């Protein structure tokens, strides 16, 4: 327990807490968007199961993330997945009614949470691992701290989305932004982005615009079909 008397340990812990506070926000938004259309009881289950499984994924990622990030095309595929998830959450979030809001919908929400968190957690895990500097106690604490942050953040976001629907659009835009960033972070594009730094922000903005634009278009199209059917 000598490490408790080390200033480096406490400084590392503060860094990890701060990193988790900053980087857990986008994960909480994904969970909230995926679970918002479920009944309240199933919302809680989806948040708990989704967050718990996501933390297990983070433990696995902690071991292999550095190697994974070296693979070309991996983050391009991951970024495209995030763009698709953002579009799906915005365009189809309110379509499930009645019996469709059952176990199938909850499992679909958990699946969405896991896929999105898998992609979005790569950079988060790398940041926490860097702050821990090989200290396994700090690394475990970092993972443990992320659990309540994500669960609390998701629950808060669901309530805010119910009260302020515009947050749903902003959340989808955030997922699109992260998707664009993830694509440009791919190892294969590293040289291009270094030579043209503006590409990073342009891709992120394009991702946000693409997700919101397509999502809103499909929402409007669905509304017209409902009016025509009526």
UniProtKB/TrEMBL annotation:
The keyword Membrane applies. Keywords: Membrane, Transmembrane, Transmembrane helix. It is a multi-pass membrane protein. This is TerC family protein. The chain crosses the membrane at residues 12-34, 46-66, 72-90, 136-153, 160-178, 198-215. It is found in: Membrane. Its main location: membrane. It comes from the Bacteria. It comes from Comamonas guangdongensis. Belongs to the TerC family.
């Amino acid at each position: 327990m000598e490490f408790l008397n080390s200033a480096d340990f406490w400084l590392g812990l503060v860094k990890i807490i701060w990193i988790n506070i900053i980087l857990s926000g986008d994960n909480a938004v994904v969970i909230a968007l995926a679970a918002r259309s479920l009944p309240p009881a199933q919302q809680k289950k989806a948040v708990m199961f989704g967050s718990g499984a996501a933390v297990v994924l983070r433990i696995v990622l902690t071991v292999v993330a550095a190697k994974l990030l070296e693979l070309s095309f991996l983050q391009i595929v991951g970024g495209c997945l995030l763009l698709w998830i953002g579009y799906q959450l915005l365009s189809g979030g309110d379509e499930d009614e009645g019996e469709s809001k059952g176990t199938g919908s909850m499992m679909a929400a958990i699946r969405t949470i896991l896929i999105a968190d898998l992609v979005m957690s790569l950079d988060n895990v790398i940041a926490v691992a860097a702050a821990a500097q090989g200290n396994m106690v700090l690394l475990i604490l970092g993972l443990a701290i992320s659990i309540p942050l994500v669960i609390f953040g998701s629950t808060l976001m669901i309530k805010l989305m119910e009260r302020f629907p515009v947050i749903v659009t902003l959340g989808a835009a955030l997922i699109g932004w992260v998707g664009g960033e993830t694509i440009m972070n791919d190892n294969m594009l590293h040289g291009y982005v270094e030579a043209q730094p503006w590409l990073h922000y342009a891709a992120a903005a394009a991702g946000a615009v693409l997700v919101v634009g397509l999502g809103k278009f499909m929402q409007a199209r669905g509304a017209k079909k409902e009016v025509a059917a009526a």
